[in-house]
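Risk register update: the risk of archive-format incompatibility is retired. Evidence:
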Amino acid sequence: MEAEAQQQKGQQRLRSCRASSKKIRENRIQLKTTGFSCYSDLHSEVCVTNKPLIIVDNNVLTAYLQSSHVQVKHMVRPYPRKEDETAMKRVSPVQILSGNATTPDCDFSHDVPAVVFSSGGFTGNLFHEFNELIIPLFITCHHFRSHLQFVITDLKPWWVRKYSRILNYLSRFEVINPAKDGRVHCFSGGVIGLKYHDNLALNSTDIPGGYSMFDFKHFLRESYNLKIKNVSDITNGTKPVLVLISRRKTRTFLNEDDMVGIMEELGFRVVVATPNRMSNLEKFSAVINSCSVIVGAHGAGLANAMFLPAGAVVVQVVPLGLDWASTNYYGGPAAEMGLHYVEYKIEAEESSLFDMYGPQHPVIADPMSIFLQGYNATRAVYVDGQNMKINLVRFRETLMKAMKFLGH
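Archived output:
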């Protein structure tokens, strides 16, 4: 049965890929014919023009398309979580006009295309920032080889500072904040929106230049000047370094000190990463890049695994009720990043929910009944409402699996 399910899933993915490829071909023909095309799927909408583009923010950001071949009056929210109402409420629309629209005169002319996107949405969470902005920026922009100008709506200055290395690597120009700038900018062309593929994923067949996750990790190493490409490059004869993601509010390890003791007994040098330590991405990316193992409960901190060298190990502790999210957000993507993946799935008795509700309560005995109540109910219980006291005997066995991947 499992083999049949995998086969059906593979066939469905193939059909989806073929439909996507057909749609992309049609959009390319339209772009070549009219100078303008929009591609839309479940997650994102991306509009492209190879004609001159005028951009100005008069309460609503407006992009005037200079093409006589197409009549356009279209609104785009340039953030790749189109299906998520909560995220999209934080994303301002961009109006695209052409045809009879009266165009303003240019204050500044740029001989490069504009790439327009929003830093609204779910920024403030490392997973979402990489999943919905940084990787889509790489997919959408890397083939321009920095010959582009970012125009960022809903611009958060802290976000631009946090990812300045990446933004400066993708574009040689300072970002434009149209809401604050207020002037009319003219470009040689433009892209409005960012292309999204999947959770922490790139589909090389849909990217100009065919870039893969390995190319993205190379891009990260260059952006942050990270030295270690493979875990085998880490100096031999030293203890392997393990980073433990230490959470403070939810999904915390109630016996964290005991876990660290087990790690050290097995021969790891342990770095405990608190939220304050992880806040400086430039410094913390170098810490992660020097490590062989990252351990953490399912959550945004595990997104730091992207800075690990190839051949390193991701150990994800799966809280009660979060199996699907753990597999799809980190388990599957780990292999695409060239990393080994080990999972420690907690038993009910290891969750604080067990003491809170008792073994017969649906939260413990029938999680599906909670899931059927909707996302908010599920999140309140399993994401925001539980901590864990790890079984050290079982956890030791999991760490030994990680050790074997490192050849110890």
